[in-house]
Known about the structure:
Helix content is about 40%, strand content about 20%. By secondary structure, the protein is α+β, with helices and mostly antiparallel strands. The strands form two sheets. The protein has a six-stranded antiparallel β-sheet with strand order 1-4-5-8-9-10, with helices on one face. A hairpin with a 2-residue loop joins β9 and β10. α9 (about 255-270) packs parallel to α10. The chain is globular.
Amino acid sequence: MVSYKIPSDLAEKQIEADVASYFGYMSPLFGKRLRLLDVNEQITGADKKYYRNGVAYYFQFKKPIGLRSTDDLKLPVAKRKNESKMMEIRRFRHSNKLDQAPYSICFPLHGDASTPNNQLQHNVLYGYEKPPYSRAMYICPMALSSEEYERAMLESIWRRWRGDPFLHHAGQTVFGLGAAPAIFTAPFLRGHATVVPHTVVSTPDHYYSFSKHATDIAFHSPELITKGPTRLSDFLGGEFLRMFREPETMVSIEDLARKLYEHSRSWTQDRITQLDDIDPLEWIQLHGTLLRKQFGIRQVIALADQQRLAEDNDRQ
């Protein structure tokens, strides 16, 4: 009997490691204007001296579950009393004429309740969606096999040496309007869907689903969130364009630390150094380390030299 589920051999830890590595590969290409500071990286003296503004990003990485299209495998005519959640997703996407070709993808929310105050991971992630200074999202590959996934990553790296995706020519780096189109087209970034948590939940018994092309994102309890596309390339390209065109929208590192401190007090409690006792950028890194340990949410900070960005913008 043919299953309506399509297995994936990817793992969440693998996805997290590969995306984090790719961010590290991207960061030097922006020169001294911007730096992506991962939660595992050491802070340098130059970070504190030159990068005085920033934006916080919070990621939860998800393993994809493939669902066969209803054209490929027909739905049961009548809904069964004990129908599975994933069969309900297929039925919802079919009834609402959402894209399923060649298959759709879904992932569940995490149900681990062994967190501080029994807070659901989804609600913690949702709490960090506070644009423009803090953004939160799920990241899920659109490939189901490691072979296809790794091929996209290698293609992105290979294109750099052909002078393509990040305009790395003659030892020069180009940021902003020049580099953003390359981010939009990088195969590895285009191969991930981004789903912004949009509501608080009372239980983890929910799924997000989307098409193979990161369109038609739905939340189950069933509701359609966006027609898309919402790929990682679209999100990052848009964010970097905003930083370039509107550098004044980035808050100071001191303000960012203060905002994160006030927001996180409900779950950090006394498990982290007080903000007044430490450098604000160091506090942000401690906060990210604890957040990852407690909830599996990864922090990346886009550090910016706002003056250089403003000067670049004036020259355009």
